[in-house]
Specification:
By secondary structure, the chain is α/β, with parallel strands linked by helices. Helix content is 32%, strand content 24%. It has a 6-stranded mixed β-sheet, sandwiched between helices. A 6-stranded mixed β-sheet has the order 16-19-20-13-21-22, with helices on both faces.
């Protein structure tokens, strides 16, 4: 792992200083939360899901309007009138977790959107835009191809290109929202090298993250937000354990552990044979075969876009299969409906919970009971008391915040929304296979620990778990085997003692980039 070089801050001038409060209905998202970021520094902003860190970043960028407080971006700003356009005029930029590049446009066209350079006569000056894009990349040690379609680049290449584009305009402050969530280890190294280059040139960067190891790797300072309040600001050289305690308000949860090793004679819970499934823009899965035994946790690693999504969707019955078979507990279900797969014992924690896992406008209770109405009927009517009791039990078990079964699911924080999906999918009778796609992506330490516990308990009860993840440490700690997907096929496997070897991450990372 390459450590980005750190230099002393170019200046101690504050790029941004904010003190803000914000309520969403009855929920206080921010209460006098504070953040000051010096030029020439990388400042990590950490906290649990729902703690307020993303809200604070969005207030600075003008995406969310604060109810009160103060903001300085070189000069005092009226928070009541602050918006994205005003933030951009003052040199504030933001790179979002899932990226904002238009996949069907070239990099140069993406760079020009909203910032179209013109020449005499008002005509677009594409040549100037191309030169500016290439120069922006070179300043950060990146070679950018202006005519490359954004959608044909890897996720890491897209993220670095977007960083170069946004950084060119973010002359005062650059906000990075969970920038490494989709990246392989080598791509994280490249991204952090760019971030340190920006800081060395006098830039100010806010890194919104829940990965505390990233704080130690790349940040100069760290601010912890808990319950909407700023509880600590330290040098990033402070021990990670101290940061973790500040984040959760006590001792952090223990690291994840594996379920017991499945019996050698354990039956096969999930069998995929010679599966081929094509994605919407090509690629996908090519003649792939794998098995998951009852009680086994099999991890799937890989750079985003190498067939993981198509594999998960094909097993779930959400994308067509052009060849091969999928079987659960020995029953072939390749052409079966989603409902038939669920009846056969399949549970899915989807990558996109808003599209495939959650009804945003429905209540928490309604979401927790999706797919279970048949077991909650009394004749032709729903058994309302039983329904309410089941919802209340699940709300308590998943540690939902707020503990309100009637709360609108779309109003919850991302971590609490994920708790709803995980709690529903793992609390089903006759469960045989769980397909979990990035189940802890973007969730905080406590929520992730709860999800780990539930997956481990499922495996210990004899359920086969297929775990797709980008966090190699998580996969190495939870899984009995880890396989890497590259260009739609399996590129390598680690199992047994190899999972704990010192070079495990290095080997997985090499397979992920095709080395």
């Amino acid at each position: 792992m390459t450590e980005p070089e750190r230099t002393a801050p170019a200046t101690t001038e504050a790029a941004v200083a904010i003190r803000a409060s914000k309520r969403f209905g009855a929920v206080a998202a921010l209460t006098d939360a504070q953040l000051t970021v010096a030029r020439g520094t990388v400042h990590a902003l950490v906290g649990e899901n729902g703690a307020g860190k993303s809200t604070l970043a969005r207030v600075i960028y003008g995406l969310v309007r604060a109810d009160g407080g103060t903001l300085r971006l070189g000069e005092p700003i009226d928070l009541a009138r602050h918006d994205v356009a005003g933030a951009q005029r003052r040199g504030v930029g933001m790179v979002h977790q899932h990226g904002m590049l238009v996949p069907t446009l070239s990099l140069v066209d993406n760079a020009m959107l909203g910032h179209e350079p013109t020449r005499w006569g008002g005509r677009l000056d594409r040549a100037a835009a191309r030169r500016a894009l290439v120069a922006a990349g070179e300043r950060l040690g990146q070679r950018l191809e202006p005519d490359a379609l954004a959608g044909e680049l890897t996720i890491g290449e897209q993220q670095r290109a977007e960083l170069a584009i946004v950084a060119e305009r973010a002359t005062r402050l650059l906000i990075l929202d969970e920038p490494t969530a989709l990246l392989a280890p080598a791509e994280v190294d490249a991204l952090f090298a760019m971030v340190r280059a920006l800081a060395a040139a006098g830039g100010a960067i806010v890194l919104v993250t829940h990965k505390l190891d990233e704080v130690a790797r790349v940040a100069d300072e760290v601010t912890v937000v808990r319950g909407g309040r700023t509880v600590a600001t330290w040098s990033a050289r402070v021990p990670i354990a101290d940061i973790a305690r500040a984040v959760v308000g006590g001792d952090p949860p223990p690291p994840p552990a594996r379920a017991p090793v499945p019996r050698p004679e354990a039956p096969i819970a999930l069998a995929v044979r010679d599966l081929t499934a094509t994605g919407p823009r090509g690629g996908g899965v090519r003649a792939l075969s794998l098995e998951v035994a009852a009680g086994e946790v099999l991890g799937i690693a890989g750079v985003e876009g190498n067939g993981q999504r198509e594999l998960a969707l094909a097993i779930a019955g959400l994308t067509p299969v052009s060849a091969g078979t999928v079987a659960i507990a020995g029953v072939e279900l390749t052409a079966a409906t989603v409902a038939a797969r669920r009846r056969a014992g399949l549970a899915v924690i989807p990558e996109d919970r808003h599209r495939h896992g959650l009804l945003d406008d429905a209540s928490v209770a309604d979401n927790l009971l999706l797919g279970r109405l048949d077991e909650l009927r009394r004749g032709w009517r729903l058994d309302r008391p039983r329904l309410a009791a089941l919802a209340a039990r699940l709300v308590d078990e998943i540690d939902l915040r707020p503990r309100d079964p009637e709360a609108r699911a779309g109003a919850l924080s991302g971590g609490n929304q994920q708790k709803v999906v995980v709690g529903r999918e793992l609390d089903r009778a006759g469960l045989r296979v769980v397909v979990a796609v990035h189940p802890t992506r973007g969730v905080d330490l406590a929520a992730a620990a709860g999800i780990h516990d539930r997956l481990r308990a499922a495996a210990a009860s004899g359920v086969g778990v297929l775990l797709f993840g980008a966090d190699l440490d998580e996969l190495l700690a939870l899984c009995h085997r880890v396989v890497v997907m590259h260009r739609g096929a399996l590129a390598g496997t680690l199992a047994g003692p190899a999972l704990a070897a010192a070079d495990a991450r290095t080997r997985l990372g090499a397979w992920m980039v095709g080395a």
